[in-house]
Design goal:
Blueprint lengths: L1 H11 L4 H23 L4 H8 L3 H4 L1 H24 L1 H20 L4 H29 L5 H29 L3 H21 L14 H24 L4 H24 L7 H4 L2 H31 L4 H6 L2 H21 L1 H19 L8 H27 L7 H28 L4 H26 L5 H4 L4
Helix pairs in contact: 2-7, 2-8, 2-9, 5-6, 5-7, 5-10, 5-18, 6-7, 6-9, 7-18, 8-15, 8-17, 10-11, 10-18, 13-17, 13-18, 13-19, 15-16, 15-17, 16-17, 16-19, 18-19
């Protein structure tokens, strides 16, 4: 049925009613995942008070989720390509709901952190399926529009997340963030089951590299944990040294395993050798920490050092989120005209400048002082996200769409988790929190500039539909 819809759209040049209904359901799915991703940022201080935890522990609510989401998302993309996107989406949504229930009922910090991290498994199955189903509904020529719709939805949902999380944390309980997610997920499952046409599983002999996933996830966890505890015991402590050694050993084992499994590797050879896709991936990796650091540390700073409530801290992110969503719509429309190199480069430049503006942080800095930097950062994110996603997906074979989107999000989310660990270490070694955030944001801005250089030299300059090349 999906191929029939695409054929009808090609003949008429218009989006059909069934396609509109399918897009509406998938927009709801994208809203759910993106809203959940940012909702906990303003609620962290409330969680810290209830469980008597510090920022080093509470940041794992975001970081642990991001790590699992980022590492497992490639497996989610491959499962979606092999067994059917809608089917895998439903399984992921079920996992998401189950652990959301446990998270909402958490009795201690460990139960909360584990439940939140395992929700990342469900999200990792849901997001690449959502991405591929959206692109599959529309024609290849409308890929820029599909990317714009998705990223605009993500931007608006990211804006709603902190506000909703702040309201629930202030007037009810942070636990209601989980419970609201449960209701949204159930509604999304019903909408997708009704409006999105089922896709047939591919007849393939591909296997899932679960051992590689386990090695990568464990190695990155060791690295993040080493960065976390180094603030208290120092980099020369035997525990930190041991964790770093384990990280390096597991990373080497992961490389060996990936080489031996060949086409079943997390990043299969045909994609790893695609220089156009690799350029987009490296660029995404270098700027991955920018967004996560902003949504984590801006509300934390305003709540803990300026006395803002959770609701007010959540509202502080609205300029960033709304601007990024609106700009994403514009960038989706101009993708076919301007091409990925220009839009991605301008996006990275905006993100770097925004980080530099936010880095001028002191104990007297308020929301109005931060607002211009948040707006510039939002412009950069709105330009970068849909353009880079569309550029990466359209340079691989169509049947690799889910996997390509998953790999890009591994770079973005998994890389962001590692970047947050680096930021946390920088802040921990600073004389005070404001100056530590200042230093972390400055480092992030320079990383974005490196990404800009990679983009300018290696990312393709024109959309693939005009260049006539695929890989």
């Amino acid at each position: 049925m999906s191929s029939e819809l695409r054929s009808m759209a090609k003949q008429s040049g218009k989006i059909t009613r069934d396609q509109y209904l399918g897009l509406a359901a998938l927009v709801l799915a994208a809203f759910l995942i993106s809203n959940d991703y940012t909702a906990f940022a303003p609620a962290l201080p409330a969680i810290e008070r209830e469980f008597n935890a510090d920022i080093t522990s509470s940041q794992w609510i975001i970081n642990g989720y991001a790590l699992v989401f980022g590492v497992f998302i490639i497996t989610g993309g491959r499962l979606a390509d092999i067994y059917g996107r809608r089917r895998v989406f439903m399984i992921g949504a079920g996992i998401f709901v189950f652990f959301a229930v446990l998270g909402g009922l958490a009795m201690d910090m460990w139960m909360l952190l584990i439940s939140r991290a395992l929700m990342g498994v469900g999200a990792a199955l849901m997001w690449p399926s959502t991405l591929a189903m959206t692109f599959n509904l529309l024609t290849y020529e409308r890929s820029g529009l599909a990317g714009g719709i998705l990223m605009a939805t993500c931007g608006l949902a990211n804006a709603a997340g902190p506000v909703l999380g702040g309201v629930l944390a202030d007037f009810f309980s942070w636990r209601w963030i989980f419970f609201v997610n449960i209701l949204l997920t159930l509604a999304t499952m019903l909408a997708c089951w009704w409006a999105v046409p089922p896709d047939k599983p591919r007849d393939t002999e591909e296997k899932i590299d679960f051992f590689g996933v386990l090695l990568l996830c464990t190695s990155l966890f060791c690295l993040l944990f080493a960065l976390d505890v180094s603030a208290e015991i120092g980099f020369k402590h035997p525990v930190v040294i041991s964790l770093i050694v384990v990280f390096l050993v597991l990373l080497c084992l992961f490389t060996i395993v990936e080489y031996r499994v060949g086409k079943d590797a997390l990043i299969p050879p045909d994609i790893a050798k695609n220089r156009k896709f690799l350029a987009v991936g490296v660029t995404t990796l270098l700027i991955s920490v920018v967004f996560l650091s902003a949504i984590l540390y801006v509300p934390q700073f305003l709540a803990n050092f300026r006395g803002y409530s959770a609701f007010q801290a959540g509202l502080s992110l609205v300029p960033l989120m709304v601007v990024s969503g609106l700009v994403a719509i514009i960038s989706g429309r101009f993708y076919e005209l301007a091409g990925p190199k220009l839009l991605v480069s301008l996006g990275i430049l905006g993100m770097s400048v925004g980080m530099f503006m936010l880095s001028n942080l002191t104990s007297d800095t308020g929301f109005l002082d931060m607002c211009p930097g948040l707006v510039v950062l939002g412009v950069g994110i709105g330009l970068f996200n849909p353009s880079s996603t569309t550029a990466g997906i359209t340079v691989v074979e169509p049947h690799r769409a889910s996997l390509a989107g998953a790999i890009l999000y591994m770079f973005k989310i998994g890389g962001g988790a590692v970047g947050l660990g680096m930021n946390a270490t920088i802040i921990a070694f600073a004389p005070d929190i404001p100056s530590g955030i200042d230093r972390a944001f400055t480092v992030n801005a320079y990383l974005a500039l490196v990404g800009l250089i990679v983009c300018m030299f290696f990312v393709i300059g024109r959309p693939e539909s005009q260049s006539g090349e695929l890989s």
